[in-house]
Amino acid sequence: MSNNEFRKEKDSLGELQVPASALYGVQTQRAVDNFPISGLRPWRAFIWSVAAVKRAAALVNFELGLFNDREVDGKKFTAQQLSNAIVQAATEVMDGKWDTQFVVDPFQAGAGTSHNMNTNEVIANRATQILGGEIGKYYVHPNDHVNMAQSTNDVIPTSIRVGALWRLEELLASLKNLQAALEAKAVEFDGVVKSGRTHLQDAVPVRLGQEFGAYAKAVERDIERVRRSADGLRRLGIGGTAVGSGLNAHPEYHSRMVMTLSEMMGVELQTSDNLFESMQSMADAADFSASLRTLALTLIRIANDFRLLSSGPSTGLDEIRLPAVQPGSSIMPGKVNPVLAEMLDQAMFHVIGCDTTVAMAVQAGQLELNVMMPIIAHNLFEMMQVMIGSVDAFTERAVKGVKANTEKAEGWLSKNAIIVTALNPVIGYSQGAALVKEAVANNASIKELAMERANSGALKHRDEDRPVKPEEIEAALSDLRKLTDGGIVGGGVGGGG
Questions:
Q1: Is 329 a catalytic residue?
Q2: In CATH, 3-148 is 1.20.910.10
Q3: Residue 90's Cα: distance from chain center in Å?
């Protein structure tokens, strides 16, 4: 850039050149110069939430009579004009109009001063434009007006909370959509009786619908976990200013800010019962992050089951067929892979990594402040973004299109010797184990083998030296679906007579 493409701005450290068209100012430019770390930019939720705090503060401070009329360059502005200009500029930021002006790397100065000042300067310069001034003239001052009654130390933790709550319903909607899709498949697959598997070995029968119903219930329980943990985020510490004492904030500022933000967002927010704790502790963020980690573990398990159940098709389980969404190999023609399940695994691994970062940052707080808040904010908002995007894709492009391969599922079940478990009340564990051993050695059907032993009189009742009748075997094993309903199959089978 040539010199005429820059403007000079001054702060407490001296003068610095800032791009002439930038809405941000000197303190933001110092952060850009100091932290050329990752090339990443703040998530939309972080931009929105800090701007929301600034908008609320402009309204509350004006209501409290804290804005004064101001004269700059011979131009006079009333307190109402200053407040209105800040509110309008902050609203534009919240609406995403100036996202390109937020340029500070997430790996930045501790506590988030750089991101806070980036917001203050953008809003101040845009408010100046609204009042008819030029960028850099600061008819509205970044610190004195936009940051009035605030500190980075209460703005950033408050913004982390409201930013997460801002996207909460979007996240929950994605999860509810997944739950509903799994529930629909549970109904659709209810008639498919298949081998259960424990330790990846054959187990007693289940219905494919029961497996999918369990997936749906697991997601439902995680939805409740996320919702419960999000309740802790509703308690805001705005008004604590630098250390929790509320220095330079009106005594009514805290409660009015919470009420104003609640009205703006249309969500229930709460005042803090201890502003010092709200400044020191980021435990509520860790709790919410941990609920997303637990959800990620559930989703990894489900995705891996999808991969197992669809494996093959010729040499694997092949009990479900996932939609073919793209070719699976650059060398093997016709190969189709479970790409949406693989994507979900990778996304959830990333979520767990983000949670680990949040946990490490939360425990690193010291005395009156946790200076690691920028990376807590970035990772928490990234977790939500990745969760929403990956769950939506998995639901729409995998779960809703999955089909049952009934023939293959029932074929595996017909070879499963472990259905002998249904005969335990009749013949006991030891005779059942012997039947399984023989059936596996001879590749024989357990039902046919048991019937053969019953017809020869070789199979005895569990607790008495009395031959088992063939009809008792038939009653226990004739309808394998009954084995998926629990209870003692065959009612009074094994009794006298």
A1: yes
A2: no
A3: 28
- Among the listed residues 329, 390, 414, 445, the single catalytic one is 329
Cα dihedral sign, 289-293-299-302: negative
Give the per-residue SS3 of the chain.
CCHHHEEEEEECCEEEEEECCCCCCHHHHHHHHHCCCCCCCCCHHHHHHHHHHHHHHHHHHHHCCCCCCEEECCEEECHHHHHHHHHHHHHHHHCCCCHHHCCCCCCCCHHHHHHHHHHHHHHHHHHHHHCCCCCCCCCCCHHHHHCCCCCHHHHHHHHHHHHHHHHHHHHHHHHHHHHHHHHHHHHHCCCCEEEEEECCEEEEEEEHHHHHHHHHHHHHHHHHHHHHHHHHHHEECCCCCCCCCCCCCCCCHHHHHHHHHHHHHCCCCEECCCHHHHHHCCHHHHHHHHHHHHHHHHHHHHHHHHHHHCCCCCCCCCCEECCCCCCCCCCCCCCCCCHHHHHHHHHHHHHHHHHHHHHHHHHCCECCECCCHHHHHHHHHHHHHHHHHHHHHHHHHCHHHCEECHHHHHHHHHCCHHHHHHHHHHHHHHHHHHHHHHHHHHCCCHHHHHHHHHHCCCCECCCCCCECCHHHHHHHHCCHHHHHCCCCCCCCCCCCC
Q: What is the CATH number of domain 415-484?
A: 1.10.40.30
Domain ranges (residues) in the chain: 3-148, 158-403, 415-484
Residue corresponding to tokens 């073919």 = 324
Give residue-wise pLDDT tens across range 177-212. Answer: 999 999 999 999 999 999 999 999 999 999 999 999
- pLDDT grade for 344, boundaries at 50, 70 and 90: very high
Identity (one letter) of the amino acid at 404?
A
158-403 CATH: 1.20.200.10
Question: How far is it, in rounded angstroms, from Cα 111 to Cα 369?
Answer: 8
User: Residues 29-84: pLDDT tens digits?
Assistant: 999 999 999 999 999 999 999 999 999 999 999 999 999 999 999 999 999 999 99
By the 8 A CB rule, do 264 and 329 touch?
Answer: no
